[in-house]
């Protein structure tokens, strides 16, 4: 893939940048976590310094192909301007009169943000011609395309995939770094290599487990998905989250790990409560979960053991919280893993999504970790060994 350095002189060129600015907003429209905006800044600054006229494309939420004020990028554009230390123009549409006027008014080194590309149904259409028509309109606004939204490179969408077929294209610094890190996790991990998986469902992580079970030295399982594994061992899981259709799969993973000499670590104690609420939490052994209680976090003994394995590893990939971290009674397991990651001397990777949100909510800062991915879904699909359309399009661009 070409990089920005391969694009030559960019002064005066209109550079369309696909960023990932899909940040959470509160009910008042305020950004509650600007991590993705901050991650987009270095590439944009590099283009600004090169004298390019930068046009940022991005999405926010799922507005179903039509304008919806609740998903406007206007507050995000304002935050981007604060981080860049310069005014950022905002187009109130994607490819219409406002977009054309705003882009035409840019001077060298200036930046504009287009309104949410998902306000146009062509962005996410499954019909090639519909996506292509929108990509044609976007391409008229630029001379060069830079792909820097790692959180969307697993999507075959107009501003990610089709645009790369219409303009000279390069990878931005954020995507380049993400790919380099993921290659280290899949092709040449420094050992010992620990993979920590959490979140709610085993089914969400099947591909990752399949692809990494023969690469990792230790696989640590927490979160809601752990109860399917405990059930596979014949244990009572009470009213905990359970995927009955994945019990046999979990049993197969336990057997496969044993055969391959991979340490598959399950919690030995669980924090339970009678309901999904931040009250009446107690700690029980993993083989003694009451039938009328639900597990909502790994217990302190398990948190300490997980942390020990993580600290002893030279490469760690973590995706998915260990419990319902949003509630203080069920946040300790996730906190224990996050704290241990900050002590890893080798490569520590937080795999985006809920994991990234968790570490920030728990008071950790990005620079305490080796790498925090901006794309949970994209990271997982890469680690599953899948082809990511947004990357494949860049590889074919000359």
Summarize the structure.
This protein has 398 residues and is α/β, with parallel strands linked by helices.
Task: Please describe what this structure looks like.
- By secondary structure, this protein is an alpha/beta fold.
- 34% of the residues lie in helices and 15% in strands.
- It is built from 13 helices and 15 strands.
- It has a 6-stranded parallel beta sheet with strand order 3-4-2-1-5-6, with helices on both faces. Strands 9-8-7-13-14-15 form a 6-stranded parallel beta sheet, sandwiched between helices. Strands 11-10-12 form a 3-stranded antiparallel beta sheet.
- Strand 13 (315-319), helix 10 (332-342) and strand 14 (347-350) form a beta-alpha-beta unit.
- Helix 1 (35-49) packs across helix 2 (74-84) and helix 9 (300-311) packs parallel to helix 10.
- The longest helix is centred in the N-terminal third of the chain and has 15 residues, at 35-49.
- The protein is elongated and about 65 Å long.
- The termini are close together.
- 49% of the residues are buried.
- The model has no long low-confidence stretch (mean pLDDT 95).
């Amino acid at each position: 893939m070409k990089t920005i350095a391969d694009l030559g002189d960019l002064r005066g060129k209109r550079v369309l940048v696909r960023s990932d600015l899909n940040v959470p907003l509160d009910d008042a429209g305020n950004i509650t976590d600007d991590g993705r905006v901050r991650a987009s800044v270095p590439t944009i600054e590099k283009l600004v310094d090169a004298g390019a006229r930068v046009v940022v494309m991005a999405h926010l939420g799922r507005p179903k192909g039509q304008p919806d004020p609740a998903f406007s990028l206007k507050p995000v554009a304002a935050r981007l301007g604060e981080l860049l230390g310069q005014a950022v123009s905002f187009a109130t549409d994607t490819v219409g009169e406002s977009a054309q006027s705003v882009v035409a008014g840019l001077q060298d080194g200036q930046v504009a943000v287009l309104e949410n590309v998902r306000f146009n149904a062509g962005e996410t259409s499954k019909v090639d011609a519909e996506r292509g028509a929108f990509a044609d309109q976007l391409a008229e606004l630029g001379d060069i395309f830079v792909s820097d939204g790692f959180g969307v490179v697993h999507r075959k969408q107009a501003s990610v995939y089709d645009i790369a077929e219409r303009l000279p294209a390069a990878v931005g610094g954020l995507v380049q770094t993400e790919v380099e890190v993921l290659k280290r996790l899949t092709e040449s991990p420094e050992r010992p290599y620990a993979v920590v998986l959490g979140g709610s469902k085993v089914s969400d992580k099947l591909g990752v487990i399949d692809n990494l079970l023969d690469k990792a030295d230790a696989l640590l399982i927490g979160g809601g998905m752990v109860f399917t594994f405990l059930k596979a061992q014949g244990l009572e899981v009470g009213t905990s989250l359970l995927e009955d259709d994945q019990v046999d799969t979990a049993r197969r993973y336990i057997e496969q790990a044993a055969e391959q000499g991979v340490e598959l670590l399950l919690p030995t104690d669980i924090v339970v409560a009678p309901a999904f609420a931040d009250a009446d939490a107690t700690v029980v052994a993993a083989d003694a979960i009451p039938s009328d209680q639900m597990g909502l976090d790994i217990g302190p003994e398990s948190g300490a053991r997980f942390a020990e394995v993580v600290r002893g590893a030279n490469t760690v990939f973590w995706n998915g919280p260990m419990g319902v971290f949003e509630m203080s009674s069920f946040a300790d397991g996730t906190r224990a893993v996050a704290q241990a990651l900050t002590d890893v001397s080798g490569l520590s990777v937080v795999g985006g999504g809920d994991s990234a949100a968790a570490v920030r909510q728990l008071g950790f800062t990005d620079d305490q970790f080796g790498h925090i991915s901006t794309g949970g879904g994209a990271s997982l699909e890469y680690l599953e060994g899948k082809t990511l359309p947004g990357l494949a399009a860049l590889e074919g661009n000359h």
